[in-house]
From TrEMBL:
Limits of the RCK C-terminal domain: 134-228
Domain RCK N-terminal: 1-117
A Gene Ontology BP annotation from the UniProt entry: potassium ion transport
Stored Pfam families: TrkA_N
Protein name as annotated: Trk system potassium uptake protein TrkA
Organism field: Sphingobacterium detergens
Amino acid sequence: MKYIVLGLGHFGRSLGVHLTELGHEVIGADKSLNIVEQLKDKITHTVCLDTTDREAVSSLPLKDAHAVIVAIGEDEGASLMTVALLKQLKVKRIIGRIVSDLQKTVLEAMEINEYIMPEEEAAERLAMRLDNIDIVDSFKVSDRYSIVETKVPQRYVGMTLREANLTNLYKIIVLTTVKITETKKDGITKEQKEASGIATSETVMAEGDILVVFGELSDINKLIQKGE
């Protein structure tokens, strides 16, 4: 997949490097030539430009990108201006970085429903989510094990955990299932998650549910890929 990361500070460079290491094509942009030069061998492509300049941003392959991530954090004004510019240019998927409640409010007003907090761990988690569209969220428990939220694979819809036998087949443990509902407030649509409690062998996996699973990431990926 192709991604564009705008802003190569601590968070942006971490995200760009993680995505590149996962095998994606990444364009990383920053107004600092020094930063761009430092990362040219770690990110697929790097370019020096002002992300608030319409002409400069328009020169990027925005239509080919699966997502454009605005990773600017130090300058909230520049970050919001960049998001607004991307909205004007009709970018199909924009992910914003937020560093304050006010910035979050403004992004929501612009109907940007995907945003991320600026921890380095969050960059790795976002990279994993972008790497596999069926992964909703994740975090590492240790170097080997992770907890991952993933969509119920289509072949298991309607089955109980006993029938699916996921633990024996994939060496993973389903901790719980989560239902997602949408609510509207002040014209803004938000998703709400509700866990069903600790999973049992009789837990049914419904269409649209999220599985919260524990295991090695390689085994979790086998579940996702074989379940398509």
